[in-house]
Write a structure and sequence with these properties.
387 residues, alpha/beta, VC0802-like, Rossmann fold, 11 helices
């Protein structure tokens, strides 16, 4: 049994833990920023291929107590690095820390790299080269107050990079956060879904991948393919099984619109890259004027207003109109709006039934749930002279 850690967007840890357990992981434990789990080494193949929520899958190879940088060097030097990858592979070392007493993480990074290279130099007279942009092997170190943990990054590029994005808007929503929001919303395939301010189309594409049972990692390569114990036959079988269960790419009740034609061009480019151009319905429309595409369904959207574009004046003017449009035209729907503006319910003048803290990268947000029922939800304005 091997030990792993999968980081994810903050706020999605419990959902990630459920997903990993469904993929066959054992000893699953959600923690701040991700989930620990265990299983055979091949489990990292499945987790990378199938997880819609994880940002990476890290394989833990060592843990040791330390007091100073030399302890970290010696602990790293004692590991059989040449058993795990070839000297011809390029490497990169990443270090993160929580309550670490050492003064320079850059120096810690250097000492870990030196130890890895010294192992190879001692065994074969050569050392691997460093490549900080596109390394073959990514080594992650995590330091607490007195413990060092070393991991291999089995993912390579972050898992939210599905391989379909050809263009992005001003502040793109990460794909794994979008998938997590769909889970929080309780959306299920077959239920109408609308993003009326779709930007580059991330919510739409993630929903289509779920509905068609397309593995999120089906279109990309992974870091574990560069490790010596990579089992090509096992990996090929997992990919073939995932491909075999994909559903036909027929039109789905997934709708996207945007006010701006340039944004729709971006979304269409991404749909084409994902092979979903005939699956999702896109049109140019103003969310304040468009009718509901079905009697009921789910709205998920990340409006391009406020902190992201600095348009605070527009925000104050737009949100009350959005609240009116949702109430008048989308009765019977549930709406989920992601925003970094904590005053959104007051501005939109609808009562949020739930607020979920989430992070899009480093940006703290809230996912607001509004159950749109005719004749309710409107915040009443106080009558002049009351109170």
């Amino acid at each position: 049994m091997e030990s792993f850690f999968a980081p994810c967007p903050r706020g999605l840890e419990a959902i990630l833990a459920q997903e990993l357990a469904a993929l066959g992981a054992t000893e699953v434990k959600a923690t701040d920023g991700g989930a620990h789990f265990a299983g055979p080494f091949e489990l990292c193949y499945r987790a990378n291929l199938e997880s819609r929520i994880a940002s990476r899958v890290l394989w833990r190879v060592a843990a040791a107590f330390y007091r100073n940088e030399d302890d970290i060097y010696q602990a790293t030097l004692a590991l059989p690095w040449s058993r795990w990858f070839d000297v011809g592979s390029t490497i990169r070392v990443n270090v993160a820390a929580l309550r670490c007493p050492l003064k320079s993480l850059d120096f810690v990074t250097l000492r870990i790299k030196d130890a890895v290279c010294d192992v190879f130099r001692g065994q074969c007279g050569e050392r691997p080269s460093v490549n900080t942009e596109q390394p073959d092997i990514r080594i992650h170190a995590f330091l607490t107050a007195d413990q060092l943990t070393l991991y291999f990054d089995t993912s390579g590029e972050p898992l939210f990079k599905r391989g379909y994005r050809r263009a992005a808007g001003e502040a793109p929503l990460r794909e794994n956060l979008a998938a997590g929001i769909l889970r929080i919303a309780g959306w299920t395939p077959g239920e109408p879904l609308l993003d009326p301010m779709c930007g580059s189309g991330t919510f739409l594409i993630e929903a289509a991948l779920i509905a068609l049972d397309i593995a999120p990692g089906a279109r990309r390569s992974f870091g574990f393919e560069k490790l010596k114990q990579f089992d090509r036959k096992t990996w090929g079988g997992l990919k073939a099984a995932a491909q075999a269960r994909e559903r036909p790419r027929t039109a789905l009740p997934i709708y996207g619109s945007d006010l701006y034609g340039e944004e729709l061009k971006t979304a269409r480019a991404n749909l084409d890259a994902a092979g979903l151009q005939d699956v999702i319905m896109l049109k140019q429309a103003n969310v304040l004027e468009m009718p509901a595409p079905a009697a009921s369904g789910v709205i998920v959207t990340n409006p391009p207003y406020g902190v992201r574009l600095g348009e605070t004046g527009e925000l104050a003017e737009f949100y009350p109109k959005l609240g009116d449009a949702l109430k008048q035209k989308f009765s019977g729907w549930r709406a989920y709006i992601l925003s970094s503006d904590m005053a959104l319910p007051r501005l939109i003048r609808l009562a949020a039934s739930k607020r979920t803290p989430l992070f899009n990268g480093a940006l703290e947000c809230r996912l607001y749930e509004f159950k749109l029922v005719a004749g309710s939800m409107r915040r009443k304005k106080p009558v002049k002279g009351e109170g």
